[in-house]
Write a structure and sequence with these properties.
This protein has 351 residues and is α/β, with parallel strands linked by helices. It contains 16 helices and eight strands. It has two domains: 189 residues, NAD(P)-binding Rossmann-like Domain (Rossmann fold, 3-Layer(aba) Sandwich); 139 residues, N-(1-d-carboxylethyl)-l-norvaline Dehydrogenase, domain 2 (Orthogonal Bundle), CATH 1.10.1040. The protein has an eight-stranded mixed sheet, sandwiched between helices.
Protein backbone atom coordinates (compact mmCIF):
# COMPACT_ATOMS: atom_id res chain seq x y z
CA UNK A 1 0.00 0.00 0.00
CA UNK A 2 1.32 3.45 -0.83
CA UNK A 3 1.44 6.06 1.92
CA UNK A 4 -0.94 9.00 1.68
CA UNK A 5 0.58 12.39 1.02
CA UNK A 6 0.89 14.95 3.78
CA UNK A 7 -1.55 17.10 1.79
CA UNK A 8 -4.25 14.46 2.29
CA UNK A 9 -3.63 14.43 6.01
CA UNK A 10 -4.44 18.13 6.27
CA UNK A 11 -8.12 17.24 5.74
CA UNK A 12 -8.38 16.88 9.52
CA UNK A 13 -5.19 18.48 10.83
CA UNK A 14 -6.57 19.22 14.31
CA UNK A 15 -8.18 16.43 16.33
CA UNK A 16 -10.90 17.83 18.57
CA UNK A 17 -13.52 15.06 18.89
CA UNK A 18 -12.81 11.36 19.24
CA UNK A 19 -15.11 8.36 18.85
CA UNK A 20 -14.32 5.00 20.43
CA UNK A 21 -15.93 1.75 19.26
CA UNK A 22 -15.85 -0.78 22.08
CA UNK A 23 -16.35 -0.19 25.80
CA UNK A 24 -14.51 -3.15 27.23
CA UNK A 25 -11.67 -2.61 29.67
CA UNK A 26 -9.13 -1.65 26.98
CA UNK A 27 -11.48 0.63 25.04
CA UNK A 28 -12.55 2.37 28.23
CA UNK A 29 -8.97 2.81 29.44
CA UNK A 30 -7.88 4.39 26.15
CA UNK A 31 -11.01 6.57 26.09
CA UNK A 32 -10.21 7.73 29.63
CA UNK A 33 -6.60 8.50 28.67
CA UNK A 34 -7.73 10.68 25.75
CA UNK A 35 -10.49 12.36 27.76
CA UNK A 36 -8.05 13.10 30.58
CA UNK A 37 -5.97 14.97 27.98
CA UNK A 38 -8.98 17.18 27.34
CA UNK A 39 -10.44 15.64 24.17
CA UNK A 40 -14.24 15.28 24.06
CA UNK A 41 -14.63 11.49 23.72
CA UNK A 42 -17.75 9.50 22.93
CA UNK A 43 -17.58 5.74 23.41
CA UNK A 44 -19.95 3.20 21.87
CA UNK A 45 -21.05 0.29 24.05
CA UNK A 46 -23.16 -2.67 22.97
CA UNK A 47 -24.75 -3.07 26.41
CA UNK A 48 -27.31 -0.44 27.42
CA UNK A 49 -26.39 -0.77 31.10
CA UNK A 50 -22.78 0.13 30.30
CA UNK A 51 -23.97 3.23 28.39
CA UNK A 52 -26.10 4.26 31.35
CA UNK A 53 -23.35 3.67 33.91
CA UNK A 54 -20.80 5.73 32.00
CA UNK A 55 -23.21 8.62 31.44
CA UNK A 56 -24.84 8.68 34.87
CA UNK A 57 -22.25 7.25 37.25
CA UNK A 58 -19.08 8.10 35.30
CA UNK A 59 -17.76 4.59 35.75
CA UNK A 60 -17.68 1.42 33.66
CA UNK A 61 -18.24 -0.93 36.56
CA UNK A 62 -18.79 -3.91 34.26
CA UNK A 63 -15.38 -3.80 32.56
CA UNK A 64 -13.14 -1.25 34.31
CA UNK A 65 -14.42 -0.94 37.89
CA UNK A 66 -12.94 1.49 40.37
CA UNK A 67 -11.97 4.26 37.94
CA UNK A 68 -13.74 7.60 37.83
CA UNK A 69 -14.32 8.65 34.22
CA UNK A 70 -14.13 12.36 33.32
CA UNK A 71 -17.24 14.34 32.39
CA UNK A 72 -16.02 14.84 28.81
CA UNK A 73 -16.19 11.06 28.27
CA UNK A 74 -19.76 10.12 27.31
CA UNK A 75 -21.32 6.91 26.00
CA UNK A 76 -23.80 6.03 23.29
CA UNK A 77 -25.56 2.92 22.04
CA UNK A 78 -25.43 4.18 18.46
CA UNK A 79 -22.44 3.34 16.25
CA UNK A 80 -23.52 6.09 13.85
CA UNK A 81 -23.45 8.72 16.59
CA UNK A 82 -20.07 7.51 17.84
CA UNK A 83 -18.30 8.07 14.51
CA UNK A 84 -20.26 10.43 12.28
CA UNK A 85 -18.93 13.79 13.49
CA UNK A 86 -15.52 12.80 14.86
CA UNK A 87 -11.95 13.77 13.96
CA UNK A 88 -10.48 10.42 15.00
CA UNK A 89 -11.99 6.94 15.38
CA UNK A 90 -10.55 4.39 17.81
CA UNK A 91 -11.62 0.79 17.09
CA UNK A 92 -11.34 -1.51 20.12
CA UNK A 93 -13.90 -4.25 19.46
CA UNK A 94 -12.98 -7.91 20.07
CA UNK A 95 -11.57 -9.36 16.86
CA UNK A 96 -14.44 -11.82 16.35
CA UNK A 97 -17.01 -8.98 16.13
CA UNK A 98 -14.75 -6.44 14.44
CA UNK A 99 -16.00 -7.18 10.93
CA UNK A 100 -19.63 -6.61 11.94
CA UNK A 101 -18.97 -3.45 13.96
CA UNK A 102 -16.76 -1.76 11.39
CA UNK A 103 -19.06 -2.71 8.51
CA UNK A 104 -21.87 -0.93 10.32
CA UNK A 105 -19.66 2.07 11.09
CA UNK A 106 -18.15 2.41 7.60
CA UNK A 107 -20.86 4.55 5.92
CA UNK A 108 -20.70 7.16 8.69
CA UNK A 109 -16.91 7.64 9.01
CA UNK A 110 -16.02 11.14 7.74
CA UNK A 111 -13.52 11.51 4.92
CA UNK A 112 -9.89 11.92 5.99
CA UNK A 113 -10.37 10.86 9.61
CA UNK A 114 -7.63 8.71 11.23
CA UNK A 115 -8.87 5.25 12.22
CA UNK A 116 -6.78 3.67 14.97
CA UNK A 117 -7.26 -0.01 15.72
CA UNK A 118 -6.34 -1.34 19.15
CA UNK A 119 -7.85 -4.80 18.57
CA UNK A 120 -5.68 -7.92 18.44
CA UNK A 121 -6.46 -11.24 16.82
CA UNK A 122 -6.83 -13.32 13.65
CA UNK A 123 -10.26 -14.04 12.21
CA UNK A 124 -11.17 -17.74 12.34
CA UNK A 125 -12.73 -18.37 8.94
CA UNK A 126 -10.70 -15.98 6.77
CA UNK A 127 -7.38 -16.18 8.71
CA UNK A 128 -7.05 -12.42 8.28
CA UNK A 129 -5.23 -10.09 10.66
CA UNK A 130 -7.16 -7.10 12.01
CA UNK A 131 -5.43 -4.84 9.47
CA UNK A 132 -6.51 -7.14 6.65
CA UNK A 133 -10.10 -7.24 7.92
CA UNK A 134 -10.29 -3.45 8.04
CA UNK A 135 -8.91 -3.10 4.53
CA UNK A 136 -11.58 -5.55 3.38
CA UNK A 137 -14.62 -4.00 5.09
CA UNK A 138 -13.82 -0.28 4.97
CA UNK A 139 -14.14 1.73 1.74
CA UNK A 140 -10.92 2.52 -0.10
CA UNK A 141 -11.22 6.17 0.95
CA UNK A 142 -10.49 5.05 4.53
CA UNK A 143 -7.40 2.93 3.79
CA UNK A 144 -4.78 5.72 3.81
CA UNK A 145 -5.91 6.72 7.32
CA UNK A 146 -5.55 3.35 9.08
CA UNK A 147 -3.15 2.86 12.00
CA UNK A 148 -2.63 0.20 14.66
CA UNK A 149 -1.84 0.57 18.37
CA UNK A 150 -0.17 -2.34 20.16
CA UNK A 151 2.34 -3.13 22.88
CA UNK A 152 2.55 -4.20 26.55
CA UNK A 153 -0.40 -2.40 28.11
CA UNK A 154 -2.82 -3.73 30.70
CA UNK A 155 -5.98 -1.62 30.74
CA UNK A 156 -6.06 -1.16 34.52
CA UNK A 157 -2.48 0.12 34.61
CA UNK A 158 -3.16 2.59 31.79
CA UNK A 159 -6.28 3.79 33.60
CA UNK A 160 -4.19 4.22 36.77
CA UNK A 161 -1.67 6.35 34.86
CA UNK A 162 1.17 3.90 35.36
CA UNK A 163 4.06 4.36 32.89
CA UNK A 164 3.23 2.48 29.68
CA UNK A 165 4.95 2.25 26.29
CA UNK A 166 3.19 1.28 23.05
CA UNK A 167 3.81 1.42 19.31
CA UNK A 168 1.68 3.03 16.57
CA UNK A 169 2.05 1.31 13.19
CA UNK A 170 0.93 2.80 9.89
CA UNK A 171 2.03 2.75 6.26
CA UNK A 172 2.05 6.56 6.52
CA UNK A 173 4.78 8.09 8.69
CA UNK A 174 2.85 11.38 8.84
CA UNK A 175 -0.28 9.66 10.11
CA UNK A 176 1.64 7.59 12.68
CA UNK A 177 3.30 10.73 14.05
CA UNK A 178 -0.01 12.57 14.26
CA UNK A 179 -1.57 9.73 16.27
CA UNK A 180 1.58 9.40 18.36
CA UNK A 181 1.21 12.99 19.57
CA UNK A 182 -2.51 12.53 20.16
CA UNK A 183 -1.90 9.70 22.64
CA UNK A 184 1.28 10.88 24.35
CA UNK A 185 1.02 11.90 28.01
CA UNK A 186 3.43 12.14 30.94
CA UNK A 187 2.90 8.42 31.58
CA UNK A 188 1.86 7.02 28.18
CA UNK A 189 4.62 7.01 25.58
CA UNK A 190 4.07 5.96 21.96
CA UNK A 191 6.66 5.01 19.35
CA UNK A 192 5.98 4.77 15.61
CA UNK A 193 6.54 1.95 13.12
CA UNK A 194 5.82 1.33 9.43
CA UNK A 195 5.71 -2.47 9.93
CA UNK A 196 1.96 -3.01 10.22
CA UNK A 197 2.17 -6.78 9.66
CA UNK A 198 4.87 -7.28 12.29
CA UNK A 199 3.00 -5.23 14.89
CA UNK A 200 -0.26 -7.03 14.12
CA UNK A 201 1.30 -10.51 14.29
CA UNK A 202 2.98 -9.76 17.60
CA UNK A 203 -0.26 -8.52 19.15
CA UNK A 204 -2.31 -11.49 17.97
CA UNK A 205 0.04 -14.41 18.49
CA UNK A 206 1.30 -13.47 21.96
CA UNK A 207 -2.15 -14.33 23.32
CA UNK A 208 -1.79 -17.95 22.18
CA UNK A 209 1.69 -18.29 23.69
CA UNK A 210 0.39 -16.73 26.92
CA UNK A 211 -2.15 -19.53 27.28
CA UNK A 212 0.74 -22.00 27.05
CA UNK A 213 2.74 -19.98 29.57
CA UNK A 214 -0.20 -19.94 31.96
CA UNK A 215 -0.51 -23.71 31.66
CA UNK A 216 3.17 -24.03 32.61
CA UNK A 217 2.46 -22.08 35.81
CA UNK A 218 -0.76 -23.96 36.49
CA UNK A 219 1.13 -27.27 36.33
CA UNK A 220 3.56 -26.01 38.97
CA UNK A 221 6.54 -25.70 36.64
CA UNK A 222 9.06 -22.97 37.42
CA UNK A 223 11.31 -20.32 35.88
CA UNK A 224 13.31 -22.52 33.49
CA UNK A 225 10.12 -23.69 31.82
CA UNK A 226 8.64 -20.19 31.66
CA UNK A 227 11.78 -18.74 30.10
CA UNK A 228 11.77 -21.51 27.51
CA UNK A 229 8.10 -20.94 26.73
CA UNK A 230 8.55 -17.19 26.19
CA UNK A 231 11.75 -17.51 24.15
CA UNK A 232 10.58 -20.30 21.89
CA UNK A 233 7.18 -18.65 21.67
CA UNK A 234 8.81 -15.50 20.34
CA UNK A 235 10.63 -17.66 17.79
CA UNK A 236 7.30 -19.01 16.53
CA UNK A 237 5.69 -15.57 16.39
CA UNK A 238 8.64 -14.18 14.45
CA UNK A 239 8.70 -17.10 12.04
CA UNK A 240 5.05 -16.63 11.05
CA UNK A 241 5.34 -12.84 10.94
CA UNK A 242 8.36 -13.00 8.64
CA UNK A 243 6.53 -15.44 6.36
CA UNK A 244 3.78 -12.82 6.04
CA UNK A 245 6.31 -10.11 5.19
CA UNK A 246 7.19 -8.56 8.56
CA UNK A 247 10.57 -7.22 9.67
CA UNK A 248 11.94 -9.66 12.31
CA UNK A 249 13.31 -6.73 14.33
CA UNK A 250 9.75 -5.58 15.01
CA UNK A 251 9.20 -8.73 17.05
CA UNK A 252 12.11 -7.81 19.31
CA UNK A 253 10.28 -4.59 20.22
CA UNK A 254 7.22 -3.48 22.15
CA UNK A 255 4.64 -5.25 19.96
CA UNK A 256 6.64 -8.50 20.06
CA UNK A 257 8.83 -9.31 23.04
CA UNK A 258 7.34 -6.52 25.16
CA UNK A 259 3.73 -7.62 24.80
CA UNK A 260 4.69 -11.30 25.00
CA UNK A 261 6.51 -10.93 28.34
CA UNK A 262 3.64 -8.91 29.81
CA UNK A 263 0.93 -11.32 28.69
CA UNK A 264 2.83 -14.46 29.70
CA UNK A 265 3.81 -13.28 33.19
CA UNK A 266 1.32 -10.60 34.30
CA UNK A 267 -1.44 -11.51 36.72
CA UNK A 268 -3.91 -9.26 34.86
CA UNK A 269 -3.57 -11.30 31.66
CA UNK A 270 -6.82 -13.05 30.78
CA UNK A 271 -5.03 -15.40 28.37
CA UNK A 272 -2.49 -16.40 31.00
CA UNK A 273 -5.35 -16.98 33.44
CA UNK A 274 -7.02 -19.36 30.98
CA UNK A 275 -3.75 -21.28 30.71
CA UNK A 276 -3.25 -21.46 34.47
CA UNK A 277 -6.67 -23.02 34.92
CA UNK A 278 -6.04 -25.48 32.08
CA UNK A 279 -2.79 -26.47 33.75
CA UNK A 280 -4.70 -27.04 36.98
CA UNK A 281 -7.05 -29.45 35.23
CA UNK A 282 -10.12 -27.36 34.41
CA UNK A 283 -11.77 -27.75 31.00
CA UNK A 284 -11.95 -24.83 28.60
CA UNK A 285 -15.76 -24.92 28.85
CA UNK A 286 -15.60 -24.49 32.63
CA UNK A 287 -13.07 -21.67 32.33
CA UNK A 288 -14.97 -19.66 29.74
CA UNK A 289 -18.22 -20.03 31.67
CA UNK A 290 -16.58 -18.15 34.56
CA UNK A 291 -15.23 -15.29 32.42
CA UNK A 292 -17.05 -12.07 31.50
CA UNK A 293 -14.34 -10.57 29.29
CA UNK A 294 -12.84 -12.08 26.13
CA UNK A 295 -9.57 -14.02 26.14
CA UNK A 296 -8.57 -13.44 22.51
CA UNK A 297 -6.06 -16.31 22.48
CA UNK A 298 -8.77 -18.99 22.67
CA UNK A 299 -10.24 -18.08 19.29
CA UNK A 300 -6.91 -17.02 17.82
CA UNK A 301 -5.37 -20.41 18.65
CA UNK A 302 -7.59 -21.99 16.01
CA UNK A 303 -6.69 -19.32 13.45
CA UNK A 304 -2.97 -19.67 14.13
CA UNK A 305 -3.14 -23.45 13.83
CA UNK A 306 -4.91 -23.20 10.47
CA UNK A 307 -2.72 -20.34 9.21
CA UNK A 308 0.54 -22.07 10.16
CA UNK A 309 -0.53 -25.13 8.22
CA UNK A 310 -1.62 -23.04 5.25
CA UNK A 311 1.71 -21.15 5.15
CA UNK A 312 3.73 -24.25 6.13
CA UNK A 313 5.28 -22.60 9.16
CA UNK A 314 6.38 -24.84 12.03
CA UNK A 315 4.78 -23.63 15.29
CA UNK A 316 4.87 -26.50 17.81
CA UNK A 317 3.85 -24.49 20.90
CA UNK A 318 0.84 -22.96 19.15
CA UNK A 319 -0.05 -26.38 17.79
CA UNK A 320 -0.07 -27.91 21.27
CA UNK A 321 -2.13 -25.00 22.65
CA UNK A 322 -4.65 -25.69 19.89
CA UNK A 323 -4.83 -29.39 20.80
CA UNK A 324 -5.31 -28.58 24.50
CA UNK A 325 -8.02 -25.98 23.87
CA UNK A 326 -9.96 -27.61 21.05
CA UNK A 327 -9.25 -31.33 21.28
CA UNK A 328 -9.02 -31.84 25.04
CA UNK A 329 -5.37 -32.84 25.19
CA UNK A 330 -4.07 -32.65 28.80
CA UNK A 331 -1.53 -29.90 29.35
CA UNK A 332 1.01 -32.35 30.77
CA UNK A 333 0.80 -34.43 27.59
CA UNK A 334 1.33 -31.29 25.49
CA UNK A 335 4.53 -30.54 27.42
CA UNK A 336 5.76 -34.11 26.95
CA UNK A 337 5.19 -33.89 23.22
CA UNK A 338 7.07 -30.60 22.97
CA UNK A 339 10.08 -32.03 24.81
CA UNK A 340 10.06 -35.23 22.70
CA UNK A 341 10.45 -33.41 19.37
CA UNK A 342 13.48 -34.12 17.17
CA UNK A 343 16.59 -31.97 17.80
CA UNK A 344 16.55 -28.65 15.92
CA UNK A 345 18.70 -25.61 15.16
CA UNK A 346 17.68 -22.69 17.37
CA UNK A 347 17.14 -19.97 14.73
CA UNK A 348 15.06 -21.14 11.77
CA UNK A 349 12.94 -18.14 10.77
CA UNK A 350 12.95 -18.44 7.02
CA UNK A 351 12.61 -22.14 6.18
Amino acid sequence: MSAPSSEHLRDHEVITRIGVLGAGSWGTALAKLLADKGYPVQIWAYESDVVRAINEEHENAAYLPGFKLPDNLTATGSIKDAVSDKDMILSVSPSHVLRHVMSEAAPYIPVGVPIVSASKGIENDTLLLVSEILEEVLPIRCHPYLAYLSGPSFAKEVAANMPTLVVIASYSANLAEKIQHTFMTDTFRAYTSHDVIGVECGGALKNVIAIGAGAVSGMGLQHNSMAAMITRGLNEITRLAVRKGANPLTLAGLAGMGDLVLTCTGGLSRNRTVGVKLGQGQTIEEILAEMKMVAEGVRTSRSVYDLSRKLQVEMPICEQVYHVLHEGRPAAEAVRQLLARDPKQEMRFYD
